[in-house]
């Protein structure tokens, strides 16, 4: 089940936090609760992705994007993700979830996220995220202009650019879809 209570808490808390610049890291402090666990008594990998959603929500609010999304009727959608899992997250572990915008291309924003537990990265994700309106992607340049930052165009790190190129080579629809 989606953690709607956590979502409400994160959204309310984000409004009280200091604003951030687009290139700054947003840190969200969470706890791994028993209902976040899988049968191996560690955080379920699907829950990791869900908590990354909350990190992006916090980041969007703190950079001012959420306010513009509300006024324009925009939504958010994930168009791809690559996650590395390296350390177990156990019940009651305190998590520092860190989110930073890496840059954008003509369609997508790219976000880097990490969960840090006891000073060590437990997982890290590269996310391809779109701002949407009526089922269509809003170009990042339109979003950035609305935010008063049309000049924000950092060069994507080489590792992110290579992931983007590799994703472009992957067949769609997947070969597994045919029956």
Order of helices and strands: HEHHEEEEEHH
**Mean pLDDT score:** 96
Estimate what percentage of residues fall within beta strands.
25-35%
The main β sheet shows up as: 6 strands, antiparallel
CA-based gyration radius: 17 Å
Q: Cα distance, first to last residue?
A: 30 Å
Helical percentage: 25-40%
Structural class: alpha+beta
Low-confidence stretches: none
How many beta-strand runs?
6
Shape: globular
What's this entry about, in short?
The protein has helices at residues 4-16, 45-62, 65-72, 140-146, 158-169; strands at 26-31, 75-85, 94-104, 109-117, 120-133, 136-138. It is an alpha+beta fold.
Write the layout of secondary structure elements.
Blueprint (H helix, E strand, L loop, with lengths): L3 H13 L9 E6 L13 H18 L2 H8 L2 E11 L8 E11 L4 E9 L2 E14 L2 E3 L1 H7 L11 H12 L10
Antiparallel strand pairs: 1-3, 2-5, 3-4, 4-5, 5-6
Helix pairs in contact: 1-2
């Amino acid at each position: 089940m989606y953690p709607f209570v956590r979502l409400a808490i994160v959204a309310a808390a984000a409004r009280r936090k200091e604003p951030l610049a687009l290139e700054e890291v947003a840190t969200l402090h969470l706890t791994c609760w028993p209902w976040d666990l899988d049968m191996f008594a560690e955080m379920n990998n699907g829950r990791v992705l869900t908590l990354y959603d909350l990190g992006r929500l916090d980041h969007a609010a703190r950079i001012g994007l959420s306010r513009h999304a509300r006024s324009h009727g925009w939504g958010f959608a994930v168009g791809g993700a690559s996650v590395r899992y390296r350390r177990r997250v156990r019940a009651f572990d305190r998590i520092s979830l860190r989110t930073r915008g890496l840059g954008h291309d003509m369609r997508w924003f790219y976000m880097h996220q990490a969960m840090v537990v006891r000073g060590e990265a437990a997982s890290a994700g590269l996310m391809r995220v779109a701002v949407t309106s009526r089922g269509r992607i809003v170009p990042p340049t339109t979003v950035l202009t609305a935010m008063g930052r049309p000049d924000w165009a950092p060069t994507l790190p080489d590792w992110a650019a290579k992931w983007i190129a590799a994703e472009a080579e992957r067949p769609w629809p997947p070969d597994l879809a045919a029956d």
